[in-house]
Amino acid sequence: MMALESSGSGGVGALASFRFYEELNDFLPRDRRKRAFDYRCARAATVKNAVEALGVPHTEVELVLANGESVDFSYLVQDGDRISVYPKFEHFDVRALLRVRERPLRDLRFVADAHLGGLARLLRMLGFDTVYSNTLSDERIRAISAVEGRIVLTRDRELLKCRGITHGCYLHALRPREQLREVAERLQLAGDARPFTLCLHCNLGLARIDKAAIADRIPPRVFERYERYSWCVGCDRVYWEGSHWERMRGLLSELLAEGQTSVRQPS
């Protein structure tokens, strides 16, 4: 294989063979996807330095093998190393092998960047605690992720490369429903979903409320037709199982069914 030089500075570094798996290939140029390739690292490069220099945010990585042995991000790449880089494993428990972070990407609470409002609402609809505001700065997102242990959702690769972010998910899709489908598949949301338990607006829990208690707050036609109502303890909104609820239930049922049956093969 032809050696490929690093674009980084700092002198000549180790020449190693890299192979990325599954969706990590989406971050690579086409000629590097789904194959091993040689890469000349920057001088004294850690495996984290090398992976991100190749375009893959470290938050997308769950397992790194150097010559068949699990290593952490601080591992210094050596001449002749064979580096294999894997995303989250969907159907295998690899916790015994993990070295790149203290715990795997399993804590399903999120913070979404300012461009993902539609996705944030859909995740809340599924029952996943999702912090979102269209005024959130990158600095604030980093702080929320670090303090509250939230997975960062974004289409900004550079944000996911920030040192303080350990758990993140890069979104390839552009539209909210496709983004939800992508997150649901990659992070296996089906088993943890609790649909229609969170407020879509303020992210707080919904409580059942007797319809008689809110008779003066809802249209008479709605009051006559529907029996089940929920109330947000934060923003005081009232929800009922109308036509919008039915449409969303169909969408979520489809996503959850796909999440329970899909099996992906390594590539």
What does it look like?
Helix 2 packs across helix 5 and helix 5 packs parallel to helix 7. The N terminus and C terminus are likely disordered. By secondary structure, the protein is of the alpha/beta class. The two termini are 20 Å apart. Helix 2 links the parallel strand 6 and strand 7. The chain is built from 7 helices and 12 strands. 25% of the residues lie in helices and 18% in strands. It has a 5-stranded mixed β-sheet with strand order 2-1-5-3-4, with helices on one face. Strands 7-6-8-9 form a 4-stranded parallel β-sheet, with helices on both faces. The protein has 2 domains: 86 residues, Beta-grasp domain (Ubiquitin-like (UB roll), Roll); 163 residues, no CATH class.
Strand tally: 12
Main sheet: strand order: 2-1-5-3-4
The largest pleated sheet is described as: 5 strands, mixed
Order of helices and strands: EEHEEEEHEHEHEHEHEEH
Question: What does this entry show, briefly?
Answer:
This protein has helices at 47-53, 117-126, 138-148, 157-160, 176-186, 220-225, 243-261; strands spanning 12-20, 37-42, 63-66, 69-70, 82-86, 110-112, 130-131, 151-154, 168-170, 206-209, 229-232, 238-240. The protein is an alpha/beta fold and 267 residues long.
What key attributes describe this structure?
single chain; 267 residues; alpha/beta; Ubiquitin-like (UB roll); 2 domains; 5-stranded mixed β-sheet; 4-stranded parallel β-sheet; 7 helices; 12 strands; elongated; disordered N terminus; disordered C terminus
